[in-house]
Amino acid sequence: MSVVIAVDGTAASGKGTLATKLAEHFDFAHLDSGSLYRLVALGVVDAGGDPNREADAVRAAQAIDHRRASDPAIRTAEMGRVASLVSVFPAVRAALLQYQRHFAAHPPGGEKGAVIDGRDIGTIVCPDADAKLFVDAAPDVRAHRRWLELKAAGAAPDEAALLAEIRERDRRDRERPIAPLKQAADAALLDTTHLDIDAAFAAALALVRPRVEAALRAQAKG
Ligand code: DC
After folding, report:
1. All domains of the chain in start order, with CATH
2. Most buried in the list 138, 160, 206, 220, measured by CB within 10 Å?
3. Given ligand 1 and candidates 42, 119, 134, which is best to mutate, with the most ligand atoms within 8 Å of its CB?
4. pTM for this prediction
5. How far does the centroid of ligand 1 lie from the alpha carbon of residue 118, in Å?
């Protein structure tokens, strides 16, 4: 049995960076589940499809090209928006579920555990995860972080537009009927509004470490 850490949270809350750092710390494999929805979005756009049409989104989800998971084309604000649109369809979510659960149960590289970040990891994908975090921050702080990120990548983003986009994405992710963004009952809340990345990581580690270490000990005993 692999050890699983579920890191859910809002857009630009810092969950992806925290998940990456937790995976490095414990030497676990890391899956950014948002990249799967972004790959579906890319598939729809590349095929000239309509992200609001279920058939187009499902076709893209079934033909997802995992080799493009690190393609910068999926990291744009527009692809995040389209990912949020295609992710409302139950058949799209169902098409991606197996891959995520397989990753959790059999982390690539024979690692002892997996860190998966997303919106529904602790609630739907891995409800039995050994440790669960729910990461959030004030919307204006998240918009500012996104603005800094996009600026560093050479874009000229509009911060007010990013804030509007983040609010809209929160609303859509929280209100969809299937697998909405929501804190699992047994997840620890981490508010990163006033924390820089080092402080947020220290807080995340303090929250998950006891559970992860207990799970690793149980794993070692077999
Ligand atoms: O984390 P992100 O910004 O890369 O995610 C993009 C969109 O994908 C997000 O707005 C909703 C969707 N998503 C989801 O529905 N479930 C997940 N586990 C991860 C992402």
Report:
1. 1-28+113-222 (3.40.50.300), 35-106 (no CATH)
2. 138
3. 119
4. 0.95
5. 6
pLDDT in tens, 176-200: 999 999 999 999 999 999 999 999 9
Q: What is the mean pLDDT of the chain?
A: 95
Residue 215 CA to ligand 1 center (angstroms) comes to 27
Average pLDDT over residues 137-151: 94
CA of 34 from ligand 1 middle (Å) equals 4
